[in-house]
User: What shape does this take?
Amino acid sequence: MGADSVVEAATPARRPRQIQRKIPRRQVDGVLLLDKPQGVSSNGALQTARRLLNAAKAGHTGTLDPMASGLLPLTFGEATKFSQMLLDADKTYEADVLLGVETDSGDAEGRVLATHPVAVDRARLERVLERFRGPIEQVPPMFSALKRDGKALYVYAREGIELEREARQVTIHALDLLDFAGDRFRLRVHCSKGTYIRSLAMDIGAALGCGAHLTALRRTGIGRFTLQGAVSLAALEATADAGREALLAPVDALVAEFPRLDLDQAGAIALLQGRVLELGLEGGEGVLRVFGPQGFLGLAARQHDGRLAAKRLIATCGDKLAANA
Assistant: This one.
């Protein structure tokens, strides 16, 4: 074949384009007490659980840092309406702290800024911890999700920008020293919402004069919920599709602390229609969990005059009542 010869390659026949069909999501209602693993973001854990349950709607009740493990309640369907209840709840953590090393993020994932000699004994550490019990002032860390001009503080921090932050009052209800070994110790912290455990670790290190940072963090409780009965992502994935929904707590799990009130069919329908019920209830103003013949209706406000008005109702109850009318 000469140099000027042209060889035409055979053009492969195009395969017909396959259309991927989306699997329709299901209406799933309830609360999953998830034991989030270390190294996974809260949103990543949420999306994995949502996929495994094939749930149409999902949310969480406050984030947990990727570095941290532990309790992360996830809400599905109608339960998402009550997520705020846990955002405002007290939290309990177990925290591991290393003395003598300061990092820019206040945890083990940050860049080391300084190292210092450590000469701390248990008695001195206990005396310093006493300063951090009760109401304290705490400056939020730069590596946090707090917003400034619409941008999270950690974005500025990654750009090397340090912004001034105002101190906030938080409450440390309990601060227990679980273990101590020279330059390392472990704490159990029961605190109010808005408390940053990495800031607590840094402040304790500063008070000891040697600096410190957080090396591990595990959330063990939120409000009345604990890790007892929590499910890992691995366990959720290992459960057969038909059995996963049985791992969810009921929709009203997040509001179980409110008193219960049962209504008959007529009362339930009237409440769902937005009418104020003349029930002559005693006990003064307050929030009630309201149930009808078909189950949980939502939250209602008991007024000073004994009347009952809807506060936050779940949509699926209207369909159930109509079907059984």
Remarks:
- Residues 1-10 have pLDDT under 50 and may be disordered.
- The chain has nine helices and 19 strands.
- The radius of gyration is 27 Å.
